[in-house]
Fold DNA 3'-5' helicase.
Amino acid sequence: MNQSEQRPDPQDSLAHEPASGSLSARARAAVAPQSPYLNGLNPEQRAAVEATEGPVLVLAGAGTGKTRVLTTRIAHLIATGKAYPSQILAVTFTNKAAREMRERITSVIGPVAEGMQWLGTFHSIGTKVLRRHAELVGLRSDFTILGTDDQLRLMKQVIEAEGIDEKRWPARQLAGHIDGWKNRGLGPDQVAAGEAGAFANGKGGRLYRAYQDRLKTLNAVDFGDLLLECLRLWREHPDILEQYQNRFRYMLVDEYQDTNVAQYLWLRLLAQARKNLCCVGDDDQSIYGWRGAEVDNILRFEHDFPGATVIRLERNYRSTGHILSAASGLIAKNQGRLGKTLRTEDEPGEKVSITGAWDSEDEARLIGEEIEALHAKKHPLSEIAILVRISAQMREIEDRLVTLGVPYRVIGGPRFYERAEIRDALAYLRVVNQPADDLAFERIVNVPKRGLGDATIQVLHNHARAARVPLVEAARFIVETDELKPKPRATLRDLLISFGRWAKLSETLSQSEVAQTVLEESGYTDMWQKDKSADAAGRLENLKELVRSMEEFPDLQSFLEHVSLVMEANESDTTERVSLMTLHAAKGLEFDTVFLPGWEEGLFPNQRALDESGRAGLEEERRLAHVGLTRARRRAKIFFASNRRIHGLWNSTVPSRFVDDLPETNVEILEAPANFSYGGSRFDRMQPFSGSSYQTPGWQRAQAHRASTDDGGYSARRSGDRRGPVLIEGELVAKSSGGSGFAVGGRVLHTKFGPGTIEAVDGNKLTVEFDKAGRKMVLDSFVKAMG
DNA sequence: AAGCGGATTTTTTTT
DNA sequence: AAATCCGCTT
């Protein structure tokens, strides 16, 4: 990064004492007494900017100007001379957020902001710290950062080395455990024995330790280590911790609700000394609990940092009245929250619409029609987003958009550097750069296929382990023996010669030229050119992009660093398109019009989230709904379908409880079949949420299971074997199903499932044994009584 | 060593 | 329905 040349700045002498009282600082403060950057802030925002000393928690609801507060606060610290740019630690979660913040600070106070060398993600800052003190935690400063795939490969090796059946105890699962431990700041020695023992008959802790040992041998770390090793470093070397505590006069954290325990500990160590820690976040937007984020961190802030100032930003500058009230009403149903009430001075605007569709295809069709109508009214497509709960919902919507010729773009998906072709290309470069990189070598030794399969690799491994040398070294030895069959032996020899040649090349050619050559001569480019699958062209495109982007870096080392932590696909596509993404990917974005399909029980709230995390899971799902709604500036449109195919099977579904959580005055029901009438649906849920009944096997699975195993007669069923609370019946049936009067034993005809016999009546839901389709639960409006 | 076919699995995703 | 994985065959 560019270092600031503007003025003397104690950037590299960590021991240099702060200079807030210095003449230069005071002089600089005097230059800008008016602080023009503070203009236009509302009182709360201004308070958040000016409360520079001590712990501060800024609870910033959606659309309340959070980023503005954060950037202005940094500008304020610098402009008033309270700190040099290099003395401010500013942490974000994504590189994108870090980049945007840097840009915005620059636009407020100019290029001084370039001197903020400690603005970045937890991981990039952790990397920086570790590289400086690598030897103290048993690494060399040029350690490599492993991606998920390398990690998995390594774990497989560890599991096998311990003589454990990888099929019974999959590496993926172990990776999950280790990841979880690292998220919680636990090293191999700190994991509770009972917990570690749950994996592989008590070998969990041992595998964790073995994995860490292997990482050290390879001079590698995984993402979790970037934080964990910092913790260890600081705990074991208080003098070094002190240097950092002195350096970081002010600390800021964005999206605090997403921090995990390790990150919390990391921050706490640093903040202990000066306590100038400002955390900005929104407990109502915590949606990453499933990957270790602890909402508790934000809920407990005042407790953890006594004397903390808490500032609430509740003025929303994004959405119109109805949307905001709908979102507020929804989130108010959550128990565990600090409580904020968003308000707007904007007009009420359109109500949030709720549309019932017959099935998911119908739903996609309705959305497509509305988009076309909006487009016809000159609504820019780039201001329209469709937010889904799970990626699987995208396909049908994409199909529809393609049919209609509506241009769209999918946001999210696999990251550029996670793609196989990029990882492969990088692996080649890693081996050229550092032949001892076993993981990289193993990855590409047989890509493209050269006939060096498992058997050959095994031989290499055996020698490498016996002689305690890297695989490449072992390979050099083996090709001189006759241990391998002639063919693989010759192939391997050729490959080694190639690597030698490429390494020489890198002395004279530029990095990107070397990459180009390696990819061509190794046959890698060729492999994709011969590939006839649909995405082969895209992959070649990505490889080109990779080679091109290398030109911007002085050496391979810094490029690899960049790529393992930062690199993203370039999204410089400015064409007019509708955006399609998951709700998770939508956080932080906003659009004029937002479509929210799939608000059905089981899908959203997601059944699995409920099964695995109970009430906490439900609340996180509700926060997700809240995030979805608050993405909309002027129009939010909710959809649900009565039939949806899940894993290839048609299921009839029931509107999400979140639909019922919306205040009636802020919504309008469109095209809803009679029985979806809003007032009624809130009273006749299939199964009101009540802890115990939702605990384990998912309601739907339980339902399905019951349907398939319980083939007893009516008597058993009629005698009230229905689990869970008793539902209000009768009244609504009479009201909504009018003359139909469905009764147990009656014959009905369903548009999709054909004829069947009613097994049970439950409000406006019927359990029907269909002649062809088996037992299903359907809404009575979708069947006709048969004579 | 590689490729086919049956079996199994199926959320959300950053670094 | 689809994609991925695993094991068996060639």
Remarks:
- The longest strand of chain A covers residues 632-646.
- DSSP finds 33 helices and 21 strands in chain A.
- The radius of gyration of chain A is 30 Å.
